[in-house]
Design goal:
Layout: H1 2-18, E1 27-35, E2 42-54, E3 57-66, E4 69-79, E5 84-90, E6 98-106, E7 109-117, E8 123-133
Antiparallel strand pairs: 1-2, 1-8, 2-3, 3-4, 4-5, 5-6, 6-7, 7-8
């Protein structure tokens, strides 16, 4: 009986370790973003690193290049990396801006929108983002 319990315990640990993000493993997704502007859309490459912080909770870091060079916007999100996902991030640099993003995964690809929060607390659409396996 003891040998069987040990076997099931080992099997359980191996299954947890094999699930990305579940056992503390970062998940990296790559894709792109579109910033919708009146003077024309601006597009760029986007890399997102998700670090699990609990069940259905993640820290996230978005890496991308924008006008003056590389940036990393950081924050947190809730949901699933194979379902619905939404979160908040804050810009880097001197001019701190808050952003919200939301969307869902379909066939391994995340499609969503990103919005910025004005100083008055209004949420305004900024554009779209797409992420898939790297």
């Amino acid at each position: 009986m003891t040998r069987r319990i040990r076997w099931f315990a080992l099997l359980g640990v191996l299954c947890l370790a094999a699930m990305p993000g579940f056992a503390g493993e970062d998940v990296t997704l790559e894709g792109g973003f579109v910033w919708e502007r009146e003077d024309g859309n601006h597009e760029g490459d986007l890399k997102a690193i998700f670090t699990p912080t609990g069940e259905g909770a993640w820290d996230v870091a978005f890496h991308f290049d924008w006008e003056d060079g590389p940036h990393v916007y950081t924050g947190s999100c809730t949901g699933s990396l194979d379902g619905e996902l939404a979160g908040d991030v804050v810009s880097d640099g001197d001019r701190e801006m808050k952003f919200k993003f939301s969307g869902s995964f379909e066939d391994g690809t995340f499609s969503g929108v990103h919005n910025f929060v004005t100083k008055e607390g209004e949420i305004k659409r900024a554009g779209t983002l797409t992420l898939g396996s790297s």
